[in-house]
DNA sequence: CCCCAGTAGTTTAAATTTCAAGAAAGGGCT
DNA sequence: AGCCCTTTCTTGAAATTTAAACTACTGGGG
């Protein structure tokens, strides 16, 4: 005699899984907090906003359609819209109409924004390095990347990739 | 002739490191978003708030000093204060004066809050499992836990641990 | 051409988080 | 006791994020 399907005992996490999960949650909280403060102090913007400038700097002609930028950064269009409004006030980014589609907008990294990025990048890389990569073996770095990729891919809507950004 | 110290070329990330870092950032964004939506839909609270209920449920007598709970959850006391105010409005948590220290407050998980937690836990565990552990080999789970622990420990203020929570 | 479902992006309000400041109590010192 | 510094927690305002509604445009049929 088996238990009814809707009363199945859930598959709780094993000890190893529980340990990994709690460690991840802690690492995450601490890291996000740490990097947010570092960037807020040194560059005057939160980590996610910095990430937007980075994506733009990688794109051809330093510009990207709003939807593409949102997809690259894994944030909602609404959130991006607010963020760009703020970055525009700072003069780091500029909005530009898309010629081919009247609905579209391009977010363009300004020269000033690019300067801010170049100024902030070394300190940020150093912070990331100190928090993560200087503490891991090359083997662990490989494992970390592989594992994160698996998780990210699993949560990714099919074919949601933008070829020109990785 | 060497470059002046303050003009050193920063140690940029290697390709492997860059790959790992971008993968992590994406996994993180997608995961946080996914779990926030799952819990908001199924239990009516964000992931961090759920985490607070979990910590309380693990504590003896289902209660914890504010500072201890904040440390366990790796959030600021200010953030916790606001969060508890909200959870209190929902009736999931109750504030209680600390007998031994008149400055202190205990956050206490109410019976109702515990019920909410028990109701939400299976679905949440399932979501975590589907997003992470069902996609990794046992070996990778071990690696993931080890790596996250190293990162978390590196960002942890010395001796900030609370013995009664892990 | 007109209609219509879908897409791009914005906007509003509500919720959450951050930041800086502040109230209250503890604890050591003289 | 009185003073000083620290710890605990809260508060209020500003910044950011979320959720849902909304405008404008596209593209495909009839």
Automatic annotation (TrEMBL), chains A, B:
Transmembrane segments: none
Signal peptide (residue range): none
Lineage, uppermost ranks: Bacteria, Bacillati, Actinomycetota, Actinomycetes, Kitasatosporales
SUPFAM superfamilies in the cross-refs: Winged helix' DNA-binding domain
Species, as recorded: Streptomyces milbemycinicus
Pfam family, one: MarR
This protein's name: MarR family winged helix-turn-helix transcriptional regulator
Record-annotated HTH marR-type domain positions: 17-153
């Amino acid at each position: 005699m088996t238990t009814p399907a809707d009363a199945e005992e859930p598959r709780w996490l094993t000890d190893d899984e529980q340990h990994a999960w709690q460690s991840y949650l802690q690492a995450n909280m601490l890291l996000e907090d740490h990097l947010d403060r570092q960037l807020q102090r040194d560059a005057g913007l939160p980590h996610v906003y910095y990430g937007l400038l980075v994506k733009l700097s990688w794109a051809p002609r330093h510009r990207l359609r709003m939807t593409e930028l949102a997809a690259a950064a894994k944030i909602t269009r609404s959130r991006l819209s607010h963020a760009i409004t703020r970055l525009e006030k700072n003069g780091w980014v500029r909005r530009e109409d898309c010629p081919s589609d009247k609905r579209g907008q391009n977010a363009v990294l300004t020269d000033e924004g690019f300067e801010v990025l170049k100024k902030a990048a070394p300190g940020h890389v150093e912070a990331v390095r100190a928090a993560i990569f200087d503490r891991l073996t090359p083997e662990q770095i490989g494992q970390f990347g592989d594992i994160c990729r698996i998780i990210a891919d699993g949560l990714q809507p099919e074919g949601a990739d933008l070829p020109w950004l990785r």
